[in-house]
Here is the input.
Amino acid sequence: MGKHLIFILVSLSAPMSYSRRIFSQIQNPNIFTWNSMIRGYAESDNPNPAIDLYRRMHMLSVEPDTHTYPFLLKAIAKLMYAKEGEKIHSITVKNGFDSLVFVQNTLVHVYAACGHAESAHKLFELMLEKNLVTWNSVIHGFSLNGRPNEALTLFKEMGCEGVKPDGFTMVSLLSACAELGALALGRRVHVYMVKIGLNENLHSGNALVDLYAKCGSIKEAYKFFEEMGERSVVTWTSLIVGLAVNGCAEEALELFKELESEGLKPSEITFVGVLYACSHCGMVDEGFIYFRRMKEEFGIEPKIEHYGCIVDLLGRAGLVEKAHEFIQSMPFEPNAVIWRTLLGACTIHGHLDLGEYARAKLLELEPKHCGDYVLLSNLYANERRWTDVQKVRGMMFKQGVRKTPGYSLVELKNCVHEFVMGDRSHPQTKEIYGMLEEITKLLRLQGYVPQTANVLADIEAEEKETALCYHSEKIAIAFMLINTAPMAPITIVKNLRVCTDCHSAIKLIAKIFHRTIVVRDRSRFHHFKDGSCSCGDYW
Here is the structure.
């Protein structure tokens, strides 16, 4: 009787405390009962007890069966315990359960969830039998771990194998398109979803809002949001964050008010979006009001991410000393992201002493993060302290730290093209550099003067100007000007923050060529049109 009661409670998602109480009163529970308990915890908000139960099973010499491992691995995936997953993988091999497709599927899911996309793919390749769940797990793994190209390649292979996608596949595919900024491909996915009837799914709808927002097409994101029959807090949050990163701060805050009027309770992530909107538009007072409301009105205890938003808010506004005071008043130890945010603000606003202090804190926490060396190097270069710049770069070399190379992505005819600084690997290199020369001439006629202070090296001014001409986003723009119709919009995805010179140049390029140019850098969108940018030169 007890075992059936536990099964019913677990199936109905009742609180696990009830099931635990019944379980503790059963003498010698059988494997069905153990599995029901492990499954219940795996599907709960606290999966940890599932692992404890498995260990108790082992101590009591209770033999697991074919259902034990999928439930257990689901808990491990939720907790992202990679080492534990590897141990269980070894045990399944030893017990002979590793050949079962549903065990293999959960193992692929574990590796993907724990950030080991390569391991997930290797296991996938070794599987003799694959089903839709298998394909979804490995596609989602690549999409989740910043490997969108691989996710799209696998989707093509899936189609060639005759496996039909479901809603989960499409969500992973849309995430990959959003990561790449592949708007045209994302639109094709949307059309396909409508064709097979998957566009009405709430999760798919949320992914579509996210896609259009992350590809800089915020009007399409808003339009789709308005057309959705069902919306969750995730839907509202996706659009609020999307509006914020696209520079529509007032619209983001207005949407937050609408969310409140609908009687929905905002989540922690919703407030990250709201604070982000305030931060990137210089709304300092409003940011602090929302920060206080989190706890006072909604009972949400601010986390490190929310404190980070406030540090960023103050830093961007030039209130660097106040940002430092705020860090010192935090109820917990600041992490590397907090100190890095402060260092970035010091670099932008020229606070050398405080910047060096923030860097010292970062050396204690993450001594080999390449971005910190670059920020400090930039800070010294802005002060023309070239000896210190060389010292920082010498430290990087000594520590084996390599700077993350900048790149820009553009989509043309359902193909994503990648460019790096000074790139000459593209088949159209001759035409691209011819267009770059033309752009440079037209920019000078408009009164453009290269901002060589951004080239952080002690070299001649002419060399600095040449270096600026060949930044990856300028090469990407030249490529798109050659290959697209006049007045067609251009969208670029860049992995680093756009520099001041490129920002000034792209404003003029948009005006000269009558184009709308959207650049998504590592923190926000810039919509360039008619000689101005949506960020209002505040980024």
Notes: The two ends are 64 Å apart (CA to CA). Residues 43 and 75 are 7 Å apart (CA to CA). The longest strand covers residues 407-412.
